[in-house]
């Protein structure tokens, strides 16, 4: 395993709840009105210090989406997902954006 390089953020930020690795800054927050299996979730334009899993089709409250799960690079915890493809026209704004679970 190689050396782990982390991006450190400044200002108001969101971190991994397990290891406090920086994930996103407040200015990249788009919406707090999302929900996941475990409760509330936030939509972000950009996140850092994550790795992604395999693409999969997932049925969500707003329809079918192609998503990839995102994991903290330091501890490996599931922190959310990224929207790859939104099949509904009204949901296209989510493509390429990230959900971080609270």
Automatic annotation (TrEMBL):
<feature type="domain" description="Yippee">
    <location>
        <begin position="12"/>
        <end position="102"/>
    </location>
</feature>
<dbReference type="GO" id="GO:0046872">
    <property type="term" value="F:metal ion binding"/>
</dbReference>
<keyword id="KW-0479">Metal-binding</keyword>
<dbReference type="InterPro" id="IPR004910">
    <property type="entry name" value="Yippee/Mis18/Cereblon"/>
</dbReference>
<dbReference type="InterPro" id="IPR039058">
    <property type="entry name" value="Yippee_fam"/>
</dbReference>
<dbReference type="Pfam" id="PF03226">
    <property type="entry name" value="Yippee-Mis18"/>
</dbReference>
<keyword id="KW-0862">Zinc</keyword>
<comment type="similarity">
    <text>Belongs to the yippee family.</text>
</comment>
<protein>
    <recommendedName>
        <fullName>Protein yippee-like</fullName>
    </recommendedName>
</protein>
<dbReference type="InterPro" id="IPR034751">
    <property type="entry name" value="Yippee"/>
</dbReference>
